[in-house]
Recover the amino acids of this structure.
């Protein structure tokens, strides 16, 4: 452990608070409402400005997903804009790319709502996955043990589990009906977004090694794993009890 490691932390987002509420609650199935709230509050940029004023040494924006560097549209574009803002105000940052949350797999395939695995993609391209508590444990470890200069203004890519969509859905065989379909039923909330996630993974975007500018995987998806070499990452079967 370096004597320069971070000693104090402030977490925004747990129960929507950092001392006081930072964003009002909306129906997440209403995409327009969510987008309006994000634009109105500019959550991460406001927190970044406050962090800069408080002389915070490292800001960790809400990435925790697929790589967003170079993105210009949608939620990924918003995250990339936040990164640009951090650079503009001179606030050191750490962008952590984790791939998809294992706990969200049933949701992506509309299992809770339909009792079936709805597959609307080819599912032949590998993607990156991490369990939520693994992400928390990893982040806590590197922030308290890794030399801060190695974390400042960096993009870290981690991968707890790697699999194609076919390999993921195969884990449900004999447990839940699997349906190959053109679309997820329209009555399922955010059906379009779930299909976007599945089909986006076919392009390679689901891997933490993906580079948007290059349009292909050019980075080591497990590059950041080396910062916590003895960590035991959970598998999809372990997390989902399959």
């Amino acid at each position: 452990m370096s004597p320069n490691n971070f000693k104090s932390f402030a977490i925004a987002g747990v129960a929507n608070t950092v001392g006081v509420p930072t964003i009002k609650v909306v129906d997440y199935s209403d995409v327009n409402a969510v987008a309006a709230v994000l634009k109105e509050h500019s959550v991460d940029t406001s927190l970044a400005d406050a962090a800069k004023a408080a002389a915070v040494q490292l800001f960790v924006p809400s990435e925790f997903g697929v790589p967003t560097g170079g993105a210009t549209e949608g939620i990924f574009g918003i995250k990339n804009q936040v990164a640009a803002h951090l650079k503009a105000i001179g606030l050191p940052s750490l962008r952590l790319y984790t791939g998809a949350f294992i706990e969200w797999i049933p949701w992506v395939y509309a299992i809770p709502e339909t009792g079936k695995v709805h597959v609307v993609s080819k599912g032949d391209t590998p993607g990156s996955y991490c369990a939520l508590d693994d992400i928390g444990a990893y982040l806590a470890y590197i922030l308290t043990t890794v030399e801060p200069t190695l974390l400042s203004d960096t993009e870290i890519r981690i991968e707890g589990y790697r699999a194609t969509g076919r390999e993921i859905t195969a884990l449900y065989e004999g447990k839940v009906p699997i349906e190959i379909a053109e679309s997820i039923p329209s009555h399922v909330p955010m059906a379009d977004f779930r299909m976007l996630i599945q089909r986006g993974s076919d392009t390679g975007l689901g891997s933490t090694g993906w580079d948007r500018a290059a349009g292909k995987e050019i980075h080591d998806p497990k590059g950041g794993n080396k910062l916590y070499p003895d960590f035991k990452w959970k598998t999809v079967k372990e997390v989902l009890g399959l």
